[in-house]
Amino acid sequence: MVSPGTLRLLSHLEDGRIEECGPRIDEETGAVSYPAAAEVLDASDGPPAEVLERLAGRELLEREFEEKLYRCPDCEAEGLGYTTACPACDSPHTVETELLEHSDCGHVAPHAAFETAGEYGEYVCPGCKEALPSFDINTSNYRRYVCRDCGERVKRPAHRLRCQECTRVIEPRRAIERVCCRYFLAETGERFTETQLRARESIVEALEAKDFDVTIDTTVPGPGGQRRPVHVHAEEEFFGDQVVAAIHEWPDADAVSALRTATQGARARPLLLTTSGSIGPEAASLAEESDVALLTLREDGTLERDYETGAEPSDRTTFFQRLTSAVRGA
Ligand SMILES: [Zn+2]
Ligand SMILES: [Zn+2]
Ligand SMILES: [Zn+2]
Fold first, then answer.
1. Is residue 39 part of a domain?
2. Could you tell me the pLDDT band of residue 233, with boundaries at 50, 70 and 90?
3. What is the distance in A from the centroid of ligand 3 to the CA of 166?
4. Domain total of the chain
């Protein structure tokens, strides 16, 4: 089902008013938005990012990977920075330090701790207090990450992400990952949009032929006084007749209830057009119950008061792929 707002978005992409829907990342908060999509979609369509993802899932839009963003699981802020941290206490205050080990007693301490000028020489082991003639002979040195908070010494620090908002240090796998993409109209989406718009035009022509004043992509007052977006609204002055029409590739029960709600507020007759010629069984019985007139768009662009009940048309891409391979094979 494609809502009026979604069809508006698709048609803007189709005629080039919108070239693509790219993400905008707020520099302050790190929040991701899709301004081009948000501008044309209706509030009732839900979050633009979800609409775009759904359309991409239906292969109507193509997505191109932009970047990945990570959100803090504790405060939900975006903007996590990479940090090395202490594997024992998660403190990011670990410093790579050169350590010396006194071979005789096994005491390990930072280089500087041995440098104390002792009674018997320049270098003294801080563990056993033995004077050392030379570092080279009596000590072995290595580098360790030393935690300034808990004293832990490790060869390799842990990889962590630090939230710039709540300063929490978290394991990367705990972060909420978000993939940001740019969205373009796919070839299948282009064909789909053309069909939906042609179907809408057919309804407009049919209603105008019956002396209706027709408005496309408009709103009607809903039951709660809130205006509802509809594909087509038509009014006939003489009898005060009103029609609200919805166009769907394969109307489901949600499409029927949305249309019903829209017509209740406007006291209009509901008209439902299927561009695939098919409608879901649940939607069909719901339509029958609520006197929704069902129409089918025929290939020549004419409308027919007939429809089939059946499952959602099989995957569009597979169908087109089949077509393509058939052409290639010929
Ligand atoms: Zn020692
Ligand atoms: Zn530590
Ligand atoms: Zn946080």
1. yes
2. very high
3. 4
4. 3
CA of 171 to the centre of ligand 2 (A): 15
pLDDT digits (tens, 9 = 90+) for 149-180: 999 999 999 999 999 999 999 999 999 888 89
Residues 202 and 270 in one domain: yes
Distance 29 CA to ligand 2 centre (A): 30
* Whether residues 116 and 249 fall in one domain: no
Could you say which ligand is closest to the alpha carbon of residue 175? 3
Determine the Cα–Cα distance for residues 286 and 257; give it in Å rounded to an integer.
8
On the CB side of 197, how many CA atoms lie within 13 Å of its CA? 17
Residue 35 sits in the same domain as residue 88: no
Domain that holds residue 163: 80-173
**Ligand positioned closest to the Cα atom of 166:** 3
Ligand minimally distant from the alpha carbon of residue 88: 2
CB atoms within 10 A of CB 264: 17
Query: Which CATH number characterizes residue 283's domain?
Result: 3.40.1350.10
| Rounded distance from Cα 76 to ligand 3 centre (Å) | 6
Query: pLDDT, tens digit, for every residue of 71-96?
Result: 899 998 888 899 999 999 999 999 99
Please check the confidence at residue 115 and state whether its pLDDT lies above 50.
yes
